[in-house]
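Z., the sequence and structure:
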Amino acid sequence: MRWSEQETRASVTSALREGLLVEHRDDSSDYSTQGYRFLHDRVQQAAHALIPVDARPAFHLEIARALLDALPEDAKNERAFELIDLVRPGVHLVTEQGERRAFFNLAFAAGEQARAGAAWGEALDYLQLSAGLLPSEPWSKAYQITFDVHLGIAESQYLSGRFEDGFRTLDLLSTRAASPIDKARAQIVRAAQHETMADYGEAVEALRLGLVGLGIDFPRDDGFDAELERELDATESALGDREIAGLVELPVLDDPAIKMSMRLLAFAWAPSYLRADLR
């Protein structure tokens, strides 16, 4: 049941009179809110303890719904952590697809914000929650966002020390990737995990496999030097009589496959160097 502002004010009159609640205005963001807050955390905890345990998930969910309805659209992501933490206990009660999509967006936003802040454990929690809010048959109905969520999960798993879980998620991504570019994105995360584990040879191999899918196949040790010479000659031939500085006049690169190839190659130099140094 949703109460109007007048009904809410009337319901808290006695608590305000007793000093358990105080009026509060929040001007900490681009929008401001007028409301009430508990006098102390202990008062809030005592009030929460009065709610029957089995009723708490639905109670938290109703608060989240009310906040979501009241907040301006551009303010929702700012409070994604607060909103999704309220939803979490009652997420199993969210069945309507539109509402599931709204809470998915919040959970995913919270996960991305946690990733940006290098809070990998929290990022993993929020991203796994968002994965649980994807539609049924997500790989066929919402492929790209499903892939992106699981890629974020894999990265957060290895960066929070859950290496086996990270590899399992990356194995799933390898089988589900629908394009060479998405396969390469997963291979970059796989290589990063191997590099974190000081397994430099496997990191290089992961990146090599990502390049193979994009049409670049590095030879193994046999014949590598000869192939390198051929590529250097081809590069010199393509450059011709132009000065290096003149290349700035070329069209801006917009081929996504070549861009991804450059990412893989740029990532490869450190594990390649360290692998050679350990031989």
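Residues 256-278 form the longest helix (23 residues). The longest strand covers residues 21-26.

Let me know what you think.
H.
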